[in-house]
Amino acid sequence: MTSVIQYYGTGRRKCASARVRLVPGTGQVQVNGRPLPDYIGGRIGYDKKVFAPFQAADAAGRFDVIVAVRGGGMSGQVDAIRHGIARALAEAAPQNRPVLRTDGLLTRDSRVKERKKYGRKRARKRFQFSKR
Description:
The chain is built from 4 helices and 5 strands, in the order E-E-E-E-H-H-E-H-H.
């Protein structure tokens, strides 16, 4: 049995976590067993975000992408997928690493939702003030 070369990357953003696998192929992307256009459901700009690492590393159409993503919402999941793809591309070809780094694709975006505080409506929003 021949072993297929695969590259792995884990991407995270907000509460979302994506396990990305790159396999040499034609550029198809599968997210949780569904094709990417079906998964993002026509949300404009999300497909460009997913393919940004490939454009930066000049590797468009060279790999098939298989993703398992969990947690968070659609925006966090798409950013987690992008982060995972960038990490896998850096593993696949170390010469891509500086290019991906300068585009900010390897940096984990650590911004998460701030916790709600007591006496407040949300994290910072206050209840309506009434003078009288």
